[in-house]
Amino acid sequence: MCGICGFVSRQDIRLAQLKEMNDTMYHRGPNDSGEEIYGLKDGYSVGLAQRRLSIQDLSALGHQPMHSDNGRISVVFNGEIYNFHELREKLSAYSFCSTCDTEIIIAAYLKWGISCVDFFNGMFAIALFDREKGELYLMRDRIGKKPVYYMENGTELVFASELKPIMSFPGFEKKIKKEVISRYLYQQYINAPETIFENVYKLEPGAILKISVNSKSLALTKETWKYWDIKDVYAKQRQHMVTDYAQAKGELKELLKKATASRMIADVPLGSFLSGGYDSSLITAIAQEHSSEPVKTFSIGFQEERYNEAKYAKEVADYLGTNHTELYIDEKQMFDLVESIPKYYDEPFADSSQIPSMLVSALAREHVTVALSGDGGDEFFCGYNIYENVAQAQMLDAAGAAVHGICGLPFINKTGLSEKLPFRVRVIAENRNKETKTQFGASNYIVRAGAMVKNDGSEFPCHYEIESKYGESKWQIRRMLLDMDTYLPGDILCKVDRASMKYSLEARCPILDRDVMEYSYRIPHEYKFYKGEKKHILKDIAYDYIPKNLLDRPKVGFGVPLDKWLRGPLKEQLLSYSEKDYLEKQGIFDSAYVSNMIREYIKTGDGGPATGANYSKLSWSFFIFEQWYQYYFN
């Protein structure tokens, strides 16, 4: 696990400047660093740099940039290639100098060209320079576990694992992309390929970017394509459905075991996050099965009982016989991390579970350098509560069409069901033909998010649609696929990457193994959502290891008291951020609208419980944006 950065430019960039960019990511790789600059052609040069967190081959032989034995290829790499032992056997003709997986990338490229990425099973962000062809390639893993940002203006390209190195590049203009802000306020993250800055993008999951020089125009040429796309992979795998439940369960279990075992290969101490839920408990149980000694497990507990899952994690740890460490945290420990958010999440990111994620990462790092996690189980095996709402909404829509010839919300209102249904079901039904993030909440919440931004017009940039993109008639499946495309890489995996790398900890996700993901598409949906039970097949596998009574309970998740903070210790700071004079000078938000909204929100909480709408989530998104703005612009 590392941080990488570099450039293709005609500027006279010195090695010291590249090192300064690289060192902004010291937390991603404190063990080693390397920076090199090479000539390209037509006055261009290529810079490659890496901060190293040593995991495989701790010797100097793992130093990057790493070069091929013939000097043709140079590479910097962030992540892990879990099948590198298998690939090494296929590439035995190459003269390997190290035992690390970075060298596999070079050997594979020399044998298969850029299609080598199809052979890699892992999480990765790779920058590879081919001197012979005069081309630089950027590659990102299939599901977007590892980040790749890049700035491109026609004559320069700068890339990095985070935005900080790009912001440090000579001449970079920090120009905010206002059109993404309303969507951020609502979703709490900025989805690929967009970022908070003009001319800066995220390489999408499963994508490759090729950069070369056009000698006639002296401009850079850029070509981007997907080598792995959820829509296409899903359609392909559905042609090979596994229609026997016992077979599906057995084959999925073996794939999970293989994925977990491959992620336990490391030359440093390894452990597992354990919340006591199905996904982390299953991965921990499989890891314990493959370990010759008790696996180190980590969980955090909360003093407030309704948020506390630590007691359940302890029961699972005791049953499995792991070497368990837990830490009970109070509200102050969470609150103290708020100030560090913009430094490590270097564009606005307001999923508040980032705070407890940082705390459990800090705890684990005291004992290990690698931690297994259960991320991906909800998206690939139907675990979120919203998926139940989606299914209910489609049933209502179908009922309305059959009985009255009316679909969606008109049917619900006409039959008097509107006030009796969960609010989310009503919202989803209203947007019945759209995969849309309005399914997360209220339409008036979206309107407010859009209205906050200056000169936003009548559009809803936070209400984007993917009309029948996946060729699926079931709304529930479409929503799961949409989350795999957007919410999982844009929010969940971003959160885990930044939270773990803040403490130089590598997080590995067996459920997001290539073979597990692709096999999940071959499993009939009724094996995942069985008679209203979410994650049925994954739970069934977990019960092979852990008694049902230890796992079967409502999902809790990490809780942060946002409303209490925003109306309490953060109140004055929030009010300061929403002053009309400040907002008018900033020129991003509708100053009158935002100032009135924040004051209305604060006022409703004075002297007791809030009356009316609680816009703590929207106010938190605004607060985090302004905190980020203060950190990077003042």
Automatic annotation (TrEMBL):
L-glutamine binds at residue 101. GO terms for molecular function: asparagine synthase (glutamine-hydrolyzing) activity; ATP binding. The active site is at residue 2. InterPro entries: Asn_synth_AEB, Asn_synthase, ASN_synthetase/amidase, AsnB_N, GATase_2_dom, Ntn_hydrolases_N, Rossmann-like_a/b/a_fold. The record marks 375 as: Important for beta-aspartyl-AMP intermediate formation. One of its GO terms (biological process) is asparagine biosynthetic process. Its EC number is 6.3.5.4. It catalyses: L-aspartate + L-glutamine + ATP + H2O = L-asparagine + L-glutamate + AMP + diphosphate + H(+). The keyword ATP-binding applies. This is asparagine synthase (glutamine-hydrolyzing). It comes from Kineothrix alysoides. The lineage of its organism: Bacteria, Bacillati, Bacillota, Clostridia, Lachnospirales.
